[in-house]
Specification:
Strand content: over 45%
Helix content: under 10%
Radius of gyration: 43 Å
Shape: elongated
Strand order of the largest sheet: 32-38-37-34-35
Distance between the termini: 95 Å
Structural class: mainly beta
Number of helices: 2
Number of strands: 49
Largest sheet: 5 strands, mixed
Length: 658
Amino acid sequence: GNHDGFVMGNSFIYNEDCPYEAYTDILETSPRGVSILNNYWGTTDTEIIDSKIWDRYDDGLLTYIYYDPILTETDITNPISPPYNLHITGIDNGEISISWDANPESDCDGYRVYWDSDGEWPYANSVDNGTSTTYTITGLAPGTYLIGVSSYDSTYAAVADDPLTHINEKQTQGVESWYAEISADPSPAPLISSDPASFDFEAVMLGDSSSAQTLTITNIGTANLEIGSITVDGDDSSEFTTQNDSCSGQTIEPSGSLTIEIIFTPASSGAKSAYLNIPSNDSYTGDLQIELNGIGGINPDISITPSSLDFGTVALGGGTATRDITITNTGSADLTIIDLSVAGTDGDEFSQTNDYSAPLTPDSSCTVTVGLSPLSTGAKTATLSITSDDPDEPIVDVSLSANVTDVLIYPVNIISLSATPLCSTAPASVDFEIEASGGSGSYDYSWDFGDTTTSDEEDPTHTYDSAGTYSVIVTVSDHENPLLTASSELTITITDDLLPTLNVSISAAPVTGEAPLEVTFTATFEGASPPFDLEWDFGDGTTESQTTDSNTAEITHTYTSAGVYSALLEATSRSESGFDTLPMRIAISISAINNSSEGNGTSNDCGCSSNAYAYSTNIGKGSIVRIASYMLNNFIIMLFPLSIITLHRLIRSRKKRR
């Protein structure tokens, strides 16, 4: 032939006594090598098969072993393979319990168990164990026993074994396998057991971690089990981590158990494997190795925010109301949006536009703007369906709803916002107060205190534990009409050392009227000694400086033209030193209105009375106080058949950010 040896028709999968399934000692001077074709290896992975072979690739003095082609499944015409994973499951005085895995061959008919105390073949004792894969040997005297287990096929009974020979003819005829062997002593000994025997974390998206999986280690022996330092080893060991390890360096008494947790965090896509190595004083098991397997996910993953859209109450004839949703790809592969469509009872009144450009790369987003153009009053419902190539959620439905009315809805306004104190030392408890108007009169509140904490109370109290400057943002939403919102902001300063405080209040009267309009501003100061330097900016291009030697100051300014103006005051205490600047904005509304006529009708006088708005705050002495806001006057002209012009004024007040 073309080769120096042939080994064909065997199952090289359960040779537990040797590190290699195939070994040659033929020198490389033979050019033909050894052929072991058409054998079953339990795998088709050539890297694994190569690791089971010792030939010229391992020792340059030897010849080659050729194994291809291989069998992809067991062939029952071949000799049956020995049992696999033979191990000790229990040791008691005079008893040894064993277990093994069932054979893969379809014609495996049972197993025989052999044992002897001299450690040599042939065995003095044997028993037919049938198809059971567990057995307990009893009545053993102290000492070391060699235990073997063989498997046999359906033709086992038809082949005779000559009792006068030392040869087992059933094995030489291939109807009984060779032995899987193990040694044991029935004297008290520790014995390690794990539950589960391995872990499969399946697919985990890149950037994510699996939930923690728990391994339980139990001492099923009869003496104390000492656990060494548990480690994660193997090709992808860095992607598997342990936590809450109660086992390493511990002693487990007989029947006792301890636990350890494992987490899988893939760093790249593809199959990942490692093993948990658990050393112990179990002389039968040695280092227990727990297989760890997982897959680094490479799929797209769609995320929709928010998951539903409620337009709240919308006025009929008020144009198109819009709301946005965000589509984000939280997966590790590109996400393709296949279709976006609106359907449902009132689907013809809803629409969608988007800035999507295929594909969405991982961690990228696009915006979908949903519009509502109501055709009639009443409750409106529809569904926005988003179809993508996300394998878990190919279609995501976003519910759409609204209540359409022919009653004009007034906007939500923040009338006043205050915090006491605005400046203090850590830890500092700050009381916040807010007043809103407009909408339905029922509000929801969302506070962001600037230190990662939030609140939904109306007037919350919050404690700042550390020094710093904190930007506090509050959003007020109409409870009945969530689209109606208003936001405002103020600054809290917390220091390590207590600073004196300057309390400032300001008022103006009148705040509305016909041009020319003379307005008197009054400022009051507490907590610091005069004199105070004041810089007024009246919002119409004119400014004025003022110094007061008292705790109050008054100034008059005339607005000559109709318009909306924002007045600003900067105040500084000259008599005190060592104060940090703390700008502050407070809402004061000023407007000057001319009577006028428009079209063929006449404009009715708004008839608004003069109203004074006063606000106060406190800051460190020597600080600059900024006072600013505006009153917005909206005039809605409605033309009727008789050319009667009705003037309706909506006064909306909110804090002006500067």
